[in-house]
Design a protein that fits this description.
Strand order of the largest sheet: 3-2-1-4-5-6
CATH class of the largest domain: Alpha Beta
Largest sheet: 6 strands, mixed
Radius of gyration: 22 Å
Number of helices: 11
CATH superfamily of the largest domain: Ribonuclease H-like superfamily/Ribonuclease H
Oligomer: single chain
Bound molecules: zinc ion
Number of strands: 12
Amino acid sequence: MSNYIVLDLEWNQAARKEDEIRDMIFEILQIGAVKLNDSFETVDTFDSYVRPRVYRIMNPMTQKLLHMDMKALKRERPFPYVMSDFLDWCGKDPVFCTWGTNDLAQLQSNMDYYGMKPLSQGPLPYIDVQKLFSIGCEDGKSRRSLEYAVGFLEMEPDETFHRALGDAVYTARIFSAITGNEKDSFDHAKYPANELLKFVSYDTYRLPRNKEEEIRVKFPTYSKYISRPFKTKHAAMRDMDVVMVNCSICGARAKRVVKWFSPSGGKYYLAVSRCKLHGYLKAKNRMKKCRDERVYVVKTVKPIGTEEVDQIRARYENAMLSQRR
Ligand SMILES: [Zn+2]
């Protein structure tokens, strides 16, 4: 049995760009969290402020959002103390859930800054409730604000937004509602609620260090692969694991129909392959920057129809033409 830890952080950043510290661009000022059991019932809450050590002046943008005062924060405990209390509170093998993709990277960078033991060696699996909301209620691509989702699901806006615990409470309610586990569960679902939990995300603050640690996951509608780092994107695109396409449904190796090409100056690459059993597959390799100069690849593979094959083929021919020019 594992606990879901629905987490929200508030942070500050340098008031002037020249004061920014590269290893900790965002300094956490507040940790708020809701602990849910397997039945998505709230078991406990965590709420703590943090004494700032690095950025002692509030960034004007942050000040507008947060209900916090630097003077009062000076009475709080420093990050390592609050964080180790928080980890004790989380218990064994917590499953972190957040609204969006930022919080876990900031949490890990603050932990690193203070030399704390890492949360994981490689990519950290977590649940991005913002993504589940999009898959369950919208097109799977939109990224909505917490305020929007609360309104959409017609929830009582009785907590303050942009306060760590308030936002965590809202995120937990949305999570519970869209996965069909709340008594007055909503009826906007586009996607079967029990299937939503299969869409696990991976935080890539720590990347796979080698081939063995690379991530390969199959979701109900597509598959995903996260590579180890490469020196350049060209080196990445020469690697067998990066360019090979397996069917997202049966896993069989698929035959190339349209070669890998980049329609976007190297930000991502596309290819079309074909599985004997399941037809055409679109493969997309996104090139992502590591914190050093290297790159890693996130590959997604999903089934497509013949119309989309033709569209991609046309884009391929266009890209070849413009290369020749
Ligand atoms: Zn197949």
